[in-house]
Amino acid sequence: MTEMPATVSSLTSLVRDPHRRERLLLGAAAPALALVTAFVLIAVVMAVTDQNPVRAFGLMLDYGTKADSQVWIINKAIAYYLSAVAVAIGFRMNLFNIGVDGQYQVGALIAAWVGGSLAFTGLVNIPLMILVAMVVSGFWAGIAGYLKATRGVSEVISTIMLNAIAGSLVGYLLKEGRLAELSGNIVHTPDLPDSSMFFTIDTGNGEIWGTVVIAVLAGVAYWFLLGRTRFGYDLRAVGHSDTAALASGVNVKTMVTGAMLLSGVAAGLVGMPILLNDSGNFGNNFPGGMGFTGIAIALLGRNHAVGMAFAALLWGFLERTGNHLDFEGYSREIVGVMQGTIVLSVVIAYELVRRWGLRRQQSRVGAELAAGRAKTNDAAEVGQ
Amino acid sequence: MVANRDIDITVRRGTVHALIGENGAGKSTLMKILYGMQKPDEGTISVDGRAVVLHSPADAIARGIGMVHQHFMLADNLTVQENIVLGAEKLHGIGAAARRRIQELSDAYGLGVRPDVLVEEIGVADRQRVEILKVLYRGARTLILDEPTAVLVPQEVDALFANLRELKAEGLTVIFISHKLGEVLAVADEITVIRRGTTVASVTPAETTPKQLAELMVGTELPVPETRESTVTDTPVLEVSGLHLSGTDAEGVVREVLSDITFTIHRGEVLGIAGVEGNGQSELVETVMGMRRPDGGVIRLAGEDISRTATRGRREAGIGYIPEDRHRHGLLLDAPLWENRMLGHVTQRPNSNGPWLTGGDARRDTERIVEEYDVRTPGVDVTAASLSGGNQQKLIVGREMSHRPRVLVAAHPTRGVDVGAQVQIWDQIREARHEGMAVLLISADLDELIGLSDTLRVMYRGRLVASADPAAITPEQLGTAMTGAATGTLDRPGPADDPGAQGSDD
Q1: B172 and B257 co-located in one domain
Q2: Is there a contact between A251 and B312 if contact means CB atoms under 8 Å apart?
Q3: B461 and B400, same structural domain?
Q4: Nearest to A243 among B329, B345, B357 (CB)
Q5: Residues whose CB falls within 8 Å of the CB of residue B398, separated by 6 or more in sequence, listed in order
Q6: Which residues are listed as membrane-spanning (chain A) (predicted)?
Q7: Is B269 found in the same domain as B150?
Q8: Distances (CA, A) of B198 to A377, B10, B195, B374
Q9: How far, in whole angstroms, is CA A76 from its chain's centroid?
Q10: Same domain (yes/no): B206, B244
Q11: To the nearest whole angstrom, how far is the Cα of A70 from the nearest Cα of chain B?
Q12: What is the pLDDT of chain B when averaged over all its residues?
């Protein structure tokens, strides 16, 4: 749904161009192959531990496709998708932003506090909160970007450390008398006024969070920015080859800082679905760890705007049905096994399909050239 | 894919057998088959009359076939001896026995290898001898040398040929791959020409001429590359004055990589820089392109000071760039051709309009480049990595020329490119020069330098030490100057040879 215009244009070019068709097919073949492999492996694991995999998969499918499950899955996927987009922006230029986790939590805390303390109308308050979250998270990521650009500090190390610092900072600020108040045994920022909550879409079987619109917009923006703008081209060029990008005139250091900032800005959105559609405050029960989920989903979705949407939904599906399997007497850990197996299979399958595709392409280039040569050879012989 | 069909060669023991052909003619594939890196679909290979099947380089080595690659495979921070025994420790250990064997081989074939020197301290020619010794050490009786002269100056080439004759005299067999016809004629006993994947002729040097060989390689009559009518004007386009750049070498010692580089290129002029690789040419190019920040000096483009302009600004101002290493600096290997067409020119038409990319226009223009510059590819959606080296280079040349540069910085524009494409690239450079383009040409191919340049400079240890008139100089004279032996005195003293300490830069 996000990618309608893109899909239409790809479809028309599919008919025209066999090379693009093949690339698209290869693109789809990898995740399909990976998922099949993963489920076979999972079935083996379950069979070995005396659990009936066929029944389990049946139960999952059954429960996961129920209407209220679907709503739950979509709502869960919103934040996952946003997190994946934030990670993918880094991935596209070979930056590994492991710090999305810390970035969104710091951003969401400050945004929740701003929204809860200032009693503007929702029309002002909601955009303000989103903006604050993006700026704060962007700043947090920007620290790592700046360190990498000026001091060559690996972003992997600095973002992990910034995660730890973010955890402490949140812990420090989330105290009564600082940014938070106490209710029961939960410390949280002042509740947002009702007018500052995001709208929901009632389906009759539960409410889909309106923040799904933010995810869709973020997906479109991601696709457009990276694929259709000069900035995106520069960013991808650095990702392909920083030496070639440098020679082509890209200021690699600026791009590093820029991409990290942008990744952080996107990370700022990760906390919004929960804050604006669910909790209405940032408390010590605010969900964490979604930054790491985003890494898995970006890998699974191949940094592709649509691919990541499917991956986020799959993740939601697994979590939803995993809870259910627990009721049915299966071990709860099987979901973790599934997620891990899927990510591993996907990464391996992508690499295999990529290599195979490159070899195929090279041999096809060779074959067409050989055919061309044979023709000119014949012509030459006729001429003699 | 049929890279080779109906290849028939017979290489007799104790001979130097040259294998020539354009790039993409199938030489490399043939070599890979002979060295066990690739398996033939049909046909047989016989060594000493016995049919063999080579599954891997190890098989080939066991049969006495060794290969010296075009790109040396040596560890810089190990000594010569350590490099030679690396991976062959089982033969003679790593101690005194190994050293004795190395010395023996070195003496027997006149290689003059010093076992205890670190590889990073020795020059290109010495490294090549280490590579040869490495192969001999493993018991090779047949040596395959892939374009061994590409990195050598004429004097070193002569020394290499002397080594090869030595090997031959000892009963060893050498297969020599090249596309430099003069060299082939000088050293080979027999010559096999490969074209379009098949052997088209087997000749001996006595019965052929360079021109005939070239025509056999290309399959048509060659255009004569020399056109001497001068298009040089007196309008300066690129002026470089007092350029200094210091760098840190492997030991952490700061030394001057470029010192007091001063030159001017006019409209319609090709300035060629000769020099053994590693004397500062790459750094000069990268400084002119804005990829390195000099410590001092001024660069002007058409009178405008661009010393502080970033690379992108310089490119937009009209500096085209054919980089020395196209894989590292010229292409995005995993990206399709049409995205590669944007590289370096993404801010310009037809690639973008304001901040937005115009992919459709870029694709159409890539198709035009593919057509006009004869890039052999099934389409513009294949990745750059799947093209052969020569076709990658043609794409780069086409891309740079399409933006009508005022100055073209061309580093080894025809390296690793077949004869046909080479002639084509030369023609394009000449044509653009005729229309007023200025060219800074760096090349290791002295014929190319002399044939294309209007003015020649020699670079040695980061300085422009000599200048020469390409109409009057021979490759041998130039080669001598490149080794630093003929500093400043080719046909007249180089003007840049006088640093003068005038403090024109800070």
Answers
A1: no
A2: yes
A3: yes
A4: B329
A5: B369, B370, B372, B373, B375
A6: 24-49, 69-91, 103-120, 126-147, 156-174, 208-226, 255-275, 295-318
A7: no
A8: 11, 14, 6, 22
A9: 13
A10: no
A11: 38
A12: 80
* pLDDT-wise least confident of A171-185, B157-171, B208-222, B285-299: B208-222
Partner-chain residue, chosen from B289, B316, B345, that has the shortest CB–CB distance to A247? B289
Q: Looking at the 3D structure of chain B, how many domains does it have?
A: 2
- Tell me if A270 sits within 8 A of A104, measured CB to CB: yes
Helices (H) then strands (E): counts for chain A: 15, 4
- Cβ-based contacts of B357 with chain A (< 8 Å): 227-230, 232-233
Q: Do B328 and A243 touch (CB under 8 A)?
A: yes
**Secondary-structure percent of chain B, ordered helix, strand, coil, rounded to 5:** 35, 20, 40
Q: Do B214 and B306 belong to one domain?
A: no
Same domain, B209 and B248: no
Kindly state the tokens that stand for B9.
């060669």
Please return the burial class of B242, using the count of CB atoms within 10 Å of its CB with bins 0-12, 13-18 and 19+: buried
Angle at A354 between CA A353 and CA A358, to 5 degrees: 115
Amino acid identity for residue A253 in this structure: K
Judging contacts by C-beta atoms under 8 Å, the chain A residues touching residue B394 are none
CA-based nearest distance A313→chain B, Å: 29
Which is nearest to A54 in space by CA: A66, A41, A65, A43?
A: A43
End of a domain among B218, B245, B273? B218
pLDDT of residue B5: 59
Quick one: closest CA in B to A380, which residue? B219
In this complex, is the C-beta atom of B240 within 8 Å of any C-beta atom belonging to chain A? no
Taking the Cβ of residue B383 and every Cβ of chain A, the question of whether any pair is shorter than 8 Å is answered with yes
Residue B223 lies in a domain: no
* pLDDT one digit per residue (tens) for chain A, 384 residues: 333 444 444 445 444 566 667 767 777 777 788 888 888 988 998 888 888 888 888 888 888 888 888 999 999 999 999 999 999 999 998 889 999 999 999 999 999 998 888 877 778 888 999 999 999 999 999 999 999 988 889 999 999 999 999 999 999 988 887 787 888 888 888 888 888 888 888 888 888 898 899 999 999 999 999 989 999 999 999 988 888 998 888 888 899 999 999 999 999 999 999 988 888 888 888 898 899 999 999 988 888 899 899 999 999 998 888 888 888 888 878 888 888 898 888 888 888 888 887 777 777 777 766 665 554 444 433 333
Q: Using CA atoms, how far apart are residues A373 and B306, in angstroms rounded to an integer?
A: 47
| One domain, residues B24 and B109 | yes
Rounded-to-integer distance, Cα B1 and Cα A374, Å: 12
Taking only residues 314 to 343 of chain B, the set having a beta carbon closer than 8 angstroms to any beta carbon of chain A reads: 314-316, 321, 323, 328-335, 339, 342-343
User: Does residue B1 form part of some domain?
Assistant: no
> pLDDT, tens digit, for every residue of B261-309?
888 998 888 999 988 777 888 889 999 998 888 888 889 888 888 888 8
CB-based contact A237 B329, cutoff 8 Å: no
B317-364 pLDDT, tens digit per residue, is 889 999 988 888 888 888 888 888 888 888 888 888 888 888 888 888
| Domain residue limits at B77 | 16-218
Asked whether residue B469 falls in the same domain as residue B321, the answer is: yes
Q: Which of B187, B218, B249 is the last residue of a domain?
A: B218
Using the beta-carbon criterion (under 8 Å), do B323 and A247 form an inter-chain contact?
yes
The answer to the question of residue B505 being in a domain is no
pLDDT at A87: 94
Q: Which of A233, A358, A369 sits opposite B357 (nearest CB)?
A: A233
- Put simply, the chain B residues between 294 and 313 with a CB less than 8 A from any chain A CB are 310-313
Residue B42 lies in a domain: yes
State the angle between helix axes of A252-268 and A100-117 in degrees (0 to 180), rounded to the nearest 10: 50
Residue pairs between chains A and B whose CB atoms are closer than 8 Å? 119
Contact residues, chain A, for B359 at CB < 8 Å: 228
CB contact under 8 Å between B332 and A237, yes or no, is yes
CB contact (8 A) between residue B312 and residue A240: no
The CATH number assigned to the domain holding B39 equals 3.40.50.300
Q: Please report residues of B whose CB lies closer than 8 A to that of A231.
A: 355
Min Cα distance A360 → chain B (Å) is: 9
